[in-house]
Each structure stands twice: as C-alpha cells, then as structure tokens.
Write a structure and sequence with these properties.
Number of strands: 21
Radius of gyration: 27 Å
Largest sheet: 6 strands, antiparallel
Shape: globular
Length: 548
C-alpha cells in the first residue's frame, strides 16, 4: 500500500482574523514557536456547566477555542474541548505527524444552529515536496452528558470529511504503483476529468498496480481501518512510474453520465453493453465518495417488474404481449390491499397495456395461481437467479454489492413482485436487467477485461426465445407509448425501458428508478427522492443512451 516517514512535530502560530460572527479565520503557520500566548482566544471555562440545548454563545466560544487549539498544534487542549478527549487528541497529533500537514488556514463560516462549517487550505510537506490540500468540513457543538459543558461532538470527519472511524490521514511514499487507467479505446481516465471515477480508480490501483512502481511517488491518502479496503488518494505530490490498466469504460459515455447525474443532489447511473456485459460508465452525485451506483442496496420499485414478468411467462401465467389480463384498481393479498398509482384501472387490457402503464394489481392478481402450485414465495428469487444472474456473486473487477431477492412470505411476497419488500438492487443491477432482455441472455457485468478478474463470473441460462421476444415487446411499448415514453422520446434506435418509483421509510418523496436500452447500450439509474421513474431517473438514462 503506502508507507509514511514520521518526522518531528512542527509547532505553529495561531492568528485570529476578526470578522464574521466573532471569528473569521485561523491560520496555522509552521515555525519554531509553540504558540504560547499568541492569539489565544479566551478559553471556555473548564468548569462551566449547564443544561438543555447549547446556546449560540456556547457554540461560538467552543468552536472558536477548539479551532484555535487545533491551529496552534495543541492536541491535548483541543481534545479537552471535545466529548472524547483521548481519541480527539490522538487524531489531531496524527493529522500533523502522519499527514505531514505543515502550514494551513482554517476559515470558519457562520454557525447554523449548533453546527459550524469551515474550509481548510493546508500545505502538505514531505521530503522537500509541497502541495496544497483544500477541503471543507464541519463540527457540531453538543452538551456534555456528565459535565454539562458545551463540547465539540468528536468524530474523525471534523479533521477531514473522508475520515471515518479507524481511518488515518497519511503522507509518504506510495509502495503501490500509480496506474494510468484507460478506456476501451485507450483514452486516459482521470478523477480530475471524471470525478465519479475516483473510488473506481482507487480500487483498480489497489487490485492491479502490483509491481508497477520502480520509482515510487509521494502522496497524501486516507488509509482505512480495513486492510483490504482501497486507499483514497487525496493528493499526489510526486507521480511515480505508472502501469497502464485497461478498462471497459467508454470516455464519451462516462462524460455524458457525469453531466447527467450532476443535475441532482443524489443520483447514480451505470451503463452496460448488452452483447458483452462490459460496463461503459459509472457515475454518482455527489462524485468521488461512496460508489452508490455499484455498492448501494435499495428497493428498485417497478423496474423489478421486468423479472416478475419473466417469472409469469416461465410459469405460464400470461401469454404473449396481446394476451388479455386484468388490471383492477386494487387487489388484496394475504389481508393486505395494494393499489395502482392514483387508483387507475384498465378495462379489457392486455399484458402489453398493463406492463407499459406499470399496473401493480395485474402482477399480483395474475400471480395468485402460483399459490396452488406451492411456489408462490420462492418463484421470484428462482427466476431472477436462473435467467438474470441476480442473487449470484458478481466479480466485476472492483467492489460491488450483489442484488438481494430473498424468499418471502405473505404480503411481503406481493410487495417483492413490484420491487418493494426486502428486494434490494443498485444502478448496476438495474442496468443489467435491460441488458439481459436486449441481448436475450445474461452477461455478467465487468469493468476490466474478463481475463483480469480472479473471481469466478456468474452465469445464467439464456432467456427462452418466446420470453425474450415478449419482454422486448412490452419494454418497447413502455418506451414508446407508456410510462417511459417521455424520457425515451429523444432516444433513437431499437429501444425498450421500464420505470420505477420506490417508497422509502422516512422519505416524503419516492426514489426515482429507470432502466432502459437502445441498440447495444443499456443503463440503469436511481435518483434519491426523485419521485416517479418517468422523471429524473429517466432523464439520466436517456442522456447516457444518447452518448452511444
């Protein structure tokens, strides 16, 4: 991984710049002084105690004094101003010693309730090399449970937003070599140009850069507590020799994906080539953090009806696209009543009509006969694994979370048919649904050439011919004359799609889901609290498909 060289702690001088709500900036200037008596704010009385919510004055004073102690390098004093003095002091010392943070400027913003945000511009210095590291973080002031004092609620993210429990900021030589990741056509992929790829590139480097660094570089990184987890590189002071790592990504599709998700606060998208399973793009908003697109696990809503429809076809519960079916306003399953959106119903409708309009009650009513066959609770997970590879372990080349489609009972079974209950997926899983239908067979998604992957790839049976044709027909109807039509109207070629919206406890708005394909590109997206799948998630997928 990496190795740091520990040096003597450099003292600092604290400077208070007047302004704001009592303070505006703290400057840590590397020097010979220990900072004693220089710019110290009036310390909060250590024996002060109170009750109830912290006051605005307490928030100002506690945050000011904590940042001042941090700035002048007094880890112990800063620690006593938190609710976990030992942990805080140790982390603060490590920030300077292992992170090699020399000069820095901390600029607080106005308090928002008990929370104070601030920006940090730090100079990282290592063996004659220097570079600036700029970021924003925040702290929250709380009432100490036993002391009653106003204290900083300690967590490592106070020092840097990417620091979690057990993680460490380090600067040093990079034992693991640098990589130059390239797309399918040899174009370089960087986190600067494609911010969503930051965690992807970190993992690629961890897995595929062995033996690459004849001349090691110098970096600042977040070292996780888990030795098997990838390091997060924050800053490169000196580049080492690089190793070229081939990926399946497409720079053009990746660029479109980055722009598409950037329109929303929390959104993810993955694009996959149906014919090969090669991943063409992965993007998240916010970018650069947790890879929700591939590691998330949430209810996928009605995009699951692609699998449910396949299950119905497999068990002979529905015929071709024109076969007559029922779509009432509501249906009761094991004592629980389920409705369609706005209680719509379809009179004298067909399978195509119910799919393109996403009729919940059709899927539940038509699946009642499975009860008599004794496969009601197991059929969905079996079909998902048999034809779509869902429920298997996917070795895609980087970290990913597999879909969860467990056996269920009672009303939960009915909920799983429409992508609720205990069913969980992410944008990668949902993109693969469309890719499988378009191709007529599951190809396990990969982000590097298959020969580079050490794990065994998941396989599945090809969709039977009639099943594949029917699914393409009903998904085509959804894309041209159904819930997905608005989003897919600007997408040309042989296309199909399915919308979804999933209710999540504690959210006022549903998550917006969408899966679709056009020619040899499929994509899946989720926009948190985006509402109907026909809206935000559909727009994201359409933008990505149009980049093919």
């Amino acid at each position: 991984m990496h190795s740091g060289v520990k040096t003597a702690l450099v003292g600092g001088v604290f400077v208070l710049v007047a302004g704001g709500v009592g303070f505006a900036g703290y400057e840590m200037l590397g020097g010979d002084s220990d900072g004693a008596g220089l710019g110290r704010a009036d310390a909060a009385p250590l024996n002060a105690s109170g009750s109830g919510e912290v006051t605005a004055e307490e928030v100002e004073r506690t945050s000011r004094d904590f940042l001042a102690a941090w700035a002048r390098g007094d880890a112990d004093a800063a620690g006593t101003l938190t609710d976990d003095p030992a942990a805080a002091a140790e982390a603060l010392r490590g920030f300077r010693e292992t992170g090699h943070v020399g000069n820095a400027v901390v600029t607080p913003g106005a308090a928002s309730g008990a929370t104070v945000s601030y920006t940090v511009k730090a100079t990282i210095s290592f063996e004659g090399h220097e570079k600036e590291l700029a970021y924003a973080s925040e702290l929250t002031v709380v009432r100490g449970k036993s002391s009653g004092r106003a204290l900083v609620d300690w967590r490592p993210a106070v020092l840097h937003p990417k620091l979690i429990e057990g993680a460490t900021l380090r600067t040093g030589e990079a034992k693991r070599g640098s990589i130059q990741a390239v797309d399918r056509e040899g174009r370089e992929l960087t986190a600067e140009k494609y911010p969503s790829l930051a965690p992807v590139l970190d993992t690629l480097r961890t897995r595929y850069a062995d033996g690459a660094a004849v001349e090691p570089g110098v970096e600042t990184w977040i070292e996780p507590a888990d030795a098997d987890a990838p390091h997060q590189t924050l800053l490169t002071l000196v580049k080492g020799k690089t190793k070229k790592v081939q990926t399946t990504l497409d720079a053009d599709v990746q660029a479109a994906a980055e722009l598409a998700v950037k329109k929303y606060d929390r959104a993810s998208v993955v694009a996959v080539r149906p014919s090969t399973g090669e991943i063409s793009a992965v993007a998240n908003s916010p970018a650069g953090g947790f890879n929700v697109a591939m590691e998330g696990a949430q209810a996928p809503g009605s995009t699951m009806k692609v699998v449910t429809a396949a299950m119905m076809l497999e068990h002979g519960l529905v015929g071709g696209p024109s076969s007559p079916v029922e779509c009432p306003k509501e249906v009761t399953w094991s004592g629980t009543t389920f409705h369609n959106n706005k209680n719509f119903s379809i009179a004298n409708g067909t399978f195509r009509d119910s799919f393109r309009r996403s009729c919940n009650t059709f899927f539940m009513k038509a699946l009642g006969p499975l009860n008599a066959k004794g496969v009601e609770d197991t059929a969905l997970s079996q079909t998902a694994r048999k034809y779509f590879g869902l429920g298997g372990v996917w070795s895609i080349g980087i970290v990913s979370t597999d879909a969860g489609i467990p056996v269920s009972k009672g009303p939960e079974t009915a909920a799983s048919y429409i992508g609720q209950g205990k069913v969980t997926m992410n944008a990668l899983s949902v993109a693969s649904l469309s890719a499988t239908v378009k191709n007529g067979a599951f190809r396990q998604p990969v982000i590097v050439p298959r020969e580079m992957i050490k794990g065994k790839l998941t396989t599945a049976q090809p969709l039977p011919g009639n099943m594949a044709a029917t699914l393409r027909s009903v998904m085509g109807a959804a894309a041209t004359d159904g819930t997905a039509a608005k989003a897919m109207s600007a997408v040309s070629g042989d296309k199909g799609a399915k919308t979804g919206s999933a209710e999540v406890d504690g959210q006022s708005d549903s998550n917006s889901w969408f899966t679709g394909y056009a020619d040899d590109l499929a994509a899946g997206s989720v926009v948190q609290s985006g509402g109907y799948g026909s809206g935000p998630a559909g727009d994201v997928v359409a933008a990505v498909l149009n980049a093919r």
